[in-house]
């Protein structure tokens, strides 16, 4: 059964199986997303990428590569801003714009609000569009603390079956740092017997 702290949002899946989902926000970014993909391929890991649709122009080939390598896409709105602070009209307009931009790349059914906050109005709207809202249970503060060592320590000391790990692509060296974090972290997670998968695969353990 899916474990939820608040109704409507997926934070983690209640399972005893050693499996977690990897999610990466705020792409695509030309150089850093490619570097993250190389790391995931090296460690034979699939992830869910939450995309900002305004970043897609000139990065379409990256999305095709993401899908071709077995990863999946999620809707993270149009820009990196707080979704809950938008007016109802602006939220719905930007959500649908992102959906329309991403939908040619496949069936997009996961949504993560900008800055992680949501309300019932937003939830009702996205569910009518066929989406599931997902946050996460394992967030090593990578947007606040630019430390590869801390991120590794935090994840390894808080890792549980069914977790949803949240990391970030994006400017200001965040994407490059995420690639470095994953290159060091993934082998250690796998050495503990864990599989790292997409949200859709994790949901099958529900």
Keywords summarizing the entry:
206 residues, alpha/beta, five-stranded parallel beta sheet, three-stranded parallel beta sheet
Cα shape: globular
Average predicted confidence as pLDDT: 94
Number of helices: 7
Q: What is the helix content?
A: 25-40%
Structural class: alpha/beta
Beta content comes to 15-25%
Tell me the number of strands. Answer: 10
Largest sheet: 5 strands, parallel
Q: Which spans of ≥5 residues are poorly predicted at pLDDT below 50?
A: 1-5
Gyration radius, in Å: 16 Å
- State the separation between the terminal residues, measured CA to CA: 5 Å
Order of helices and strands: EEEEHEHEHEHEHEHEH
Quickly describe the structure.
By secondary structure, the chain is α/β, with parallel strands linked by helices. The protein has 7 helices and 10 strands.
Q: In words, what does this structure look like?
A:
With 206 residues, the chain is of the alpha/beta class. Helices cover 39% and strands 17% of the residues. It has seven helices and ten strands. Strand 7, helix 4 (120-128) and strand 8 (132-134) form a beta-alpha-beta unit. Helix 5 packs parallel to helix 6. The longest helix is centred in the C-terminal third of the chain and has 18 residues, at 174-191. 41% of the residues are buried. Mean pLDDT is 94; it is low at 1-5.
SSE order and pairing:
Elements: E1 2-3, E2 9-10, E3 12-13, E4 19-27, H1 30-42, E5 48-51, H2 60-68, E6 72-75, H3 88-102, E7 110-111, H4 120-128, E8 132-134, H5 148-158, E9 164-168, H6 174-191, E10 195-197, H7 199-203
Parallel strand pairs: 2-8, 4-5, 4-9, 4-10, 5-6, 7-8
Antiparallel strand pairs: 1-3
Helix pairs in contact: 1-6, 3-4, 5-6
């Amino acid at each position: 059964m899916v474990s939820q702290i608040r109704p409507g949002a997926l934070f983690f899946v209640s399972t005893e199986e050693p499996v977690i989902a990897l999610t990466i926000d705020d792409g695509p970014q030309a150089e850093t997303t490619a570097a993250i993909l190389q790391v995931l391929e090296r460690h034979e890991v699939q992830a869910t990428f939450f995309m900002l649709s305004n970043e897609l122009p000139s990065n379409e080939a990256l999305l095709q590569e993401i899908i071709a390598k077995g990863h999946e896409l999620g809707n993270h709105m149009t820009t990196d801003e707080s979704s809950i602070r938008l007016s109802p009209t602006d939220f719905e307009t930007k959500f649908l714009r992102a959906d329309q931009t991403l939908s040619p790349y496949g069936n997009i059914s996961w949504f993560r609000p900008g800055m992680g906050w949501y309300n019932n109005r937003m939830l009702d709207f996205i569910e009518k569009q066929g989406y599931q809202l997902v946050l996460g249970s394992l967030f090593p503060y990578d947007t606040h603390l630019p430390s590869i060592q801390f991120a590794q320590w935090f994840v390894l000391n808080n890792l549980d079956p069914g977790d949803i790990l949240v990391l970030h692509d994006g400017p200001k060296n965040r994407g490059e740092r995420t690639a470095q974090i994953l290159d060091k972290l993934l082998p250690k997670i796998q050495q503990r017997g864990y599989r790292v998968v997409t949200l859709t695969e994790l949901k099958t353990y529900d």
